[in-house]
Amino acid sequence: MENKACFIWCLCIFTYMTLFPAVDMFDLKVDAGLKRHNGKHKLFVFGDSYVDTGNWPKSMSTSWKEPYGLTYPGSPSGRFSDGLVLTDFIASFLGIRSPLPYTKKGSDRKSSVKAGVNFAYGGTGVFNTFVNQPNMTTQINYFQQLIIQEEEVYTKEEMSSSIALVSVAGNDYATFLTKNGNNMKDLGDLTKSIISQLELNLRRIHGLGVSKVGITAMEPIGCLPRMTAVSSYENCSDSATSLSRFHNEILQQTIEKLNNQTGKPVFVILDLYSAFMSALNIQQSHPGNSSNFENPLKPCCMGTSSEYSCGDKRGTTKKYVVCRNPQLSFFWDIIHPSQQGWFAVFSALKPSLRSLL
């Protein structure tokens, strides 16, 4: 149960190339106006499978199994997609290489973490979830150890232009609902608890010297393929997505408060909700879609039956199927966007990303 797909199933009650040209892997074009920043920024990443680029042990995660990594790099890389994920696109936007996963940093620490470090683990949350991997607090502990308790890796000047990316919360809701039999009675209190702890975590990241912090709003969970399967991948579930909207409302209020207290726009919301809806071309008042992706609510990779998921095998027999062209699918599996899907989301996020510079 190592990624969002292992959890979001329990949210059942609330829970082509013309428009989006193919992505040229790591040779992504950086805006001309940003080239002067090349190498200047450091990117530190915290959170879950939407930003994890390979921290899970290879023997324990589907992200290290075929057909993950099919588009890039051609074999599993630990990313929960067929190729690049949100972290990679944001790093390219900053003019740097995608930061190395924390578990992959070499003995030459300063050299290997030059662009920053990715501390994110798929399936984790603000609090503990069902996966035995570091929650956000522990991820920040690793960050603190790297920059303070060990030999100095980054200078104060380098930290002054550093940026953090945070993607977290979905797995917290899924864990709560699993433990409570999908009882939604206390979800409002849970949201406040999640946001309260997240606020402490964000303050801590900034207090460790990070100049700007980008926090993802929750994606429209009612549009995830696990939720749209019941409608043959035709319609989003507005009742499921209402949780996302409520979470994002409380998050917005908290970020405004933090920025008022710091006296400057340190914290920036990256609106995944609107970016997903824009990429899928779905209007909130109308559940149907007219996206440029082929059947955008249907995943490219899925199990051959409801008991199997993308990457599953029984012995040597594959228990999953993959679409002919992942570039025409917004979703890679039942939870995660494809590389082309993430590129569409990234394109929608660009205006807010400039606020991180």
Automatic annotation (TrEMBL):
Belongs to the 'GDSL' lipolytic enzyme family. It comes from Nicotiana tabacum. Keywords: Hydrolase, Lipid degradation, Lipid metabolism, Signal. Pfam families: Lipase_GDSL (PF00657). One of its GO terms (molecular function) is hydrolase activity, acting on ester bonds. PANTHER family: OS04G0650200 PROTEIN, OSJNBB0059K02.9 PROTEIN. Residues 1-25 form the signal peptide. SUPFAM superfamilies: SGNH hydrolase (SSF52266). One of its GO terms (biological process) is lipid catabolic process. The keyword Ribosomal protein does not apply. This is GDSL esterase/lipase At5g03610-like isoform X1.
